[in-house]
Design a protein that fits this description.
7 helices; 24% strand; globular; binds fe (ii) ion
């Protein structure tokens, strides 16, 4: 076991768990540097796609739908002509944990495997990863959602491992979550329909709009997020970036539907925490 019994109970009761001090400062620096160099390497892609959870029209874009087993760059939307191109990068996704050697080693940490088992994932599979930049002044809001909407399994099993690469505070757009909200059930699924996508409503009853708490955390903190937990983040209005690395893990004992938006090539089976896709 890695977590204490109390931490396991807190996770199941709140739908999230905050674990400070999980990423050493030198490791964070390496990850931040690696993300920066990936952005530079991917500069040809900068104008290929714009990401927003508000406007899903871009998701009809083949660039997004085929990014599940690649590393691609997604830009902030809106009129940002005055901003430099690299400053407009919203995130990298969605297979950094398998394809990038630095993120692969970081993601396949035995501690995270033990945590996954502690919170009930029998056979953890590393499904998806994102490096989120939340740039100073222009980092956009992410609307309230449940991660299981986008990373669905039957039964629901996805857990987010969200690592603060920098301090996350009220003014730079920290996460907000609804304690206990993971017991409300799944409201919708985001599914593929050919080369387009749609939301399939599973439960019309609304998610409460009140009761969310800000998860202000120092750099190096790991926040575990239950896949059914409603959460969001506000825009970054500060002069400081709020970078984060998010790794999503599912239980391979569950069924992964063929109409989930995220599909990986047949040669890219999910890795466990013990087994990297890239050989060390
Ligand atoms: Fe999320």
């Amino acid at each position: 076991m890695y977590l204490s019994q109390q931490q396991i109970e807190d996770y199941h009761s709140n739908g999230f768990l905050i674990l400070p001090g999980m990423v050493e400062e030198d490791v964070r620096k390496v990850l931040i540097q690696q993300a920066d160099s990936l952005v530079h390497d991917l500069r040809e892609d900068w104008f290929s796609s714009v990401f927003s959870t508000k406007n899903q029209t871009e998701t009809t874009n083949e660039y997004f739908l085929s990014s599940g087993d690649k590393i691609r760059v997604f830009m902030e939307e809106g009129n940002l002509a005055n901003e430099s191109s690299s400053h407009r990068v919203n995130k990298l996704g969605h297979a950094l944990h398998d394809l990038d050697p630095v993120f692969s080693i970081f993601s396949h940490d035995d501690r995270f495997g033990r945590i996954a088992k502690d919170i009930g994932i029998q056979q953890p599979g590393l499904l998806q990863s994102m490096y989120i930049f939340k740039q100073p002044r222009i980092g956009g809001e992410v609307n309230m959602h449940q991660d299981a909407t986008f990373l669905y399994t039957d039964p629901v099993s996805v857990v987010g491992f969200w690592f603060a690469m920098q301090d996350a505070t009220l003014d730079n757009g920290c996460m907000w979550a609804l304690p206990g909200g993971h017991r409300l059930g799944l409201k919708s699924r985001f599914v593929r329909e050919g080369m387009t996508t749609k939301f399939e409503v599973l439960d019309e009853s609304p998610v409460p709009e009140e009761g969310y708490v800000p998860l202000e955390v120092p750099a190096g903190t790991l926040i575990l997020l239950h896949g059914l937990l409603p959460h969001y983040s506000k825009a970054n209005l500060s002069d400081r970036a709020r970078q984060a690395y998010a790794l999503h893990v599912i239980d391979q004992m569950t069924h992964y539907p063929a109409d989930n938006w995220l599909q990986r090539g047949k040669d890219m089976k999910l890795t466990s925490f013990e087994q990297q896709f890239i050989k060390k």
